[in-house]
Amino acid sequence: MVALLLFMFATVVALILFDKYEEEHEMQTQNSRPFTEEPRAERDYSTCSIFTVLGFTREEVRSFTAFRDHFRSYAEVTGAMRRAGLDRMRLIVGIDFSGSNEWQGRRTFKG
Q: How much is the pLDDT for 13?
């Protein structure tokens, strides 16, 4: 008899909790933003990306590809990094000027 009462009590509690979940889920879907709104990652891209400073759109850099840079000196590179805000990030950049790297780049990227 006790087992039957506990089973009935547990069933009622489960139904109440399910009803509460359904209400919250319905309210959440009503308050959610539409899919046409620009996601946060897309919005923030233009404010914090070095590619923006270089003049590339997000679609152009979705996957890594070689691109011709617009720099003629190391000072221009550091200037672009400063404009992108990378000087405040304690970022260390290494540039490989070795002959094998240049040869591999010409062979791989045809440039």
A: 93
